[in-house]
Amino acid sequence: MTTLSTDDDRIRELLADARHTGPIPDDVAARLDAALGELAGSSGEPLPEPVLPTPVPSPAVPDLAAARRRRTARNLLIAAAAVVVVGVGISRLDLSGVSSSADDSGSSADGPASASDAGGDAAAGSDGSLRKATGPTVVLDSDRFGHQVRALRLREPVASAPASGAYDAPTDGTTDGPADRLFGADGERSSELGAARASCDPASWGPGRRVKARYDGKAGVLIYRPAQGDTQVVELYLCGHDDPTRSITLPRR
Amino acid sequence: MSAAATDPRDDHDLLRAHVEGDPDAYAELVRRHRDRLWAVALRTMGNREDAADGLQDGLVAGYRRAATFRGDAAVSTWLHRVVVNACLDRLRAAKVRRTDPLPDDLEDHAERGSLVSAAPTEGDPAEASVRAERRTAVLAALRRLPEDQRAALVLVDMEGYPVAEAAAILDCAVGTVKSRCSRGRSRLAELLRPLLDAAGEQAHTPTGNPPPARSVESPDAPRGPPTAG
Description:
Number of helices of chain B: 11
Largest sheet of chain A: 6 strands, mixed
Number of strands of chain B: 0
Largest interface: A-B, 40 and 64 residues
Strand content of chain B: under 5%
CATH superfamily of the largest domain in chain B: RNA polymerase sigma factor, region 2, helix turn helix motif
Distance between the termini of chain B: 97 Å
Radius of gyration of chain B: 26 Å
Oligomer: heterodimer
CATH architecture of the largest domain in chain B: Orthogonal Bundle
Number of strands of chain A: 6
Structural class of chain A: alpha+beta
Mean pLDDT of chain B: 80
Order of helices and strands of chain A: HHHHEEHHHEEEE
Helix content of chain B: 55-70%
Shape of chain B: elongated
Order of helices and strands of chain B: HHHHHHHHHHH
Number of helices of chain A: 7
Distance between the termini of chain A: 112 Å
Strand order of the largest sheet of chain A: 1-2-3-4-5-6
Largest sheet of chain B: none
C-alpha cells in the first residue's frame, strides 16, 4: 500500500469519525417547525408557481427594448431640436444682416458713423475692409466707399446679383428672390422700399458683375464694369435711380 | 419519529400531498429526514448558526419549489440537494466575512453522549479528549477546503452516500464528485499531516511500557568493604 493510498484511507477514516451523528438540536428543530408552520399557515392552498429560495433583493430586470426605444426617441428629439436651432439661427443671421441694413436705412439721417455702428458685427472694423452683411448683400458707407469696393474686389468670390434681368422683381408674389434677401426676407413693408423694389432694374444699368449692396442704408447694386485697359470702373446704383450714385476707377488686377 | 410511524404515506406521497395543498405533509416529510439534513448542513457550513440558517433556507426553498420535483430521484436526495445548495449559496455569499469558528457541535455531542462510535473508549477521559481534539482538527481543516470539495467529502466520506447519489445531490457528474473528493482528500492530507504522521507512529509503536532491562551482571566479584589493617 502506498503512502498516498494510506493517507487517503486515513483521511476517510478521520472524516467518517468526524461525522455528526446526533439529532437536530431542539432549538433548531423548533425554529424550523415555526418557519414551516408559518409558510403553511400563509398558504393553505395548492402552492403557486415555485419561487427561488432565499430571494435576494435585486433591482427589477431592465426592459432593454424599452430603454433602446427611449434612447432612440431621445436622440431623435435632440437631433430635431438641433435642426430647429440651426435653422432658426441661420434665418436669424440672414435677418440680422438685413435688419441691420434696415436699421441703417432707418437711421441714415444720422450719417455714416451711425450706420456703421448699426451694422454691428456684420460690419468691418476700422481698417476699412469690406463691410458685408451676412449673406449676399454687402454694406457700404459713403465715407469709405472706395476702400470697401477695393477690398470687396480682393475678397472674391462675393455674392453677385444676376448679370441681367430684374433681380428684384418677384412678379409671382413669392418672397424668396434676391431682392427679398436684399430688402429683407420678412419684407420691409415701407413704401419707400416698395418703390425702390419696383424700380430696381439692373438690366438698365449696363453690363458687369453685380453685387447686391446697401449703401448708407439704401438698397442698390454694385456693378464691376468690364476692365478697360489697365483700369476697371465700379459703379453703385441705388434702386430707383437711373444714374450711378457712386463711381470709382480701380487699377486692373 | 412517531409521526413517521403513524403516517403510512411514503416520501413521494407526502410531497405530492404537499403540492396539492396538504398543510401537514411537508412538515412530516422534513421530520423524517431532518436529522441527516442537519448533519450535512452542519458539516458543510462548519458552525451551528450558519447550519441552522442554511437548513432553514433549503427547506423553505423546498417547500416552495416542491412542484418542480420531477420524481426522477428519491425525495430525500432532492431534499438534500436543496439544503446543500442553500448552504453553498450561503457560504459563497458570506465568503468575505466568514471567520473560522471552532466547531461547536462537540459540546452538543458531549451533552447528548451521542458519539455512537465512541463506545470502545467510553469511560476513558484521556482517549475521549484526544479524539475530540482530532475531530476538531479535521473539521477545521475541512472548513479550509473550497465549498465544492467540502460538500462532496461531507456527502461521500462523512455521510456515506454513494458517489452517484452525491452527484445527484450536488447536481453534477459522478466524475466531478470523484475528482472533488480526491482533491479534497489530498488537501486534507497536507493540512492534517502532523495528525497523520502521529497516527502512523502510534501504529508502529507497541503499546504499554517496555519491560525493565535486566541489570548487567559484573564478571568481577563485588568489592567488599575495605579491610582494616
